[in-house]
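Problem statement: downstream parser choked on a complex file, so we are re-checking the raw output for the zinc ion run. The parser issue turned out to be on our end (a line-ending mismatch), but while we're here, posting the original submission so the record is complete.
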Amino acid sequence: MAKRSMTISQLRKFCEKLDITLTDFDNKWAHQFLKTIGWEAAEDRPKGLAVGAKHGVFAMFEKSMCTSEKLFVIFHEIGHILMGHVTCRAMTIEEKELEANIFASVFMAMETYKAFSKGGELDG
Ligand SMILES: [Zn+2]
């Protein structure tokens, strides 16, 4: 099985450099946050979420996804944060989602290229 270029723990370090806390939904704080906004049950919530809070900016993700989906969702949430979507009121949700998907797609394309250039292939 081929190795991918980036692991979730490397992505966590990348987020730390951007002052973004990366956490899965099972993290105690994230779980409490989801409970307060009514997304406690797994079937009610999205696969990822970008949140600006008093004590920082958080990119959250569903832990049960396969690695490729996790990477895409995390890049998508990072995109929301870096493009200012967390506080922006001028854009529609659809515009924000499109931009974040484009952002994540570019990173996934780079990730795919790096994996293949190392003789690898994408896996779950
Ligand atoms: Zn989104």
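For whoever reads this later: The pocket of zinc ion is lined by residues 76, 80, 97, 100 (CB under 6 Å).
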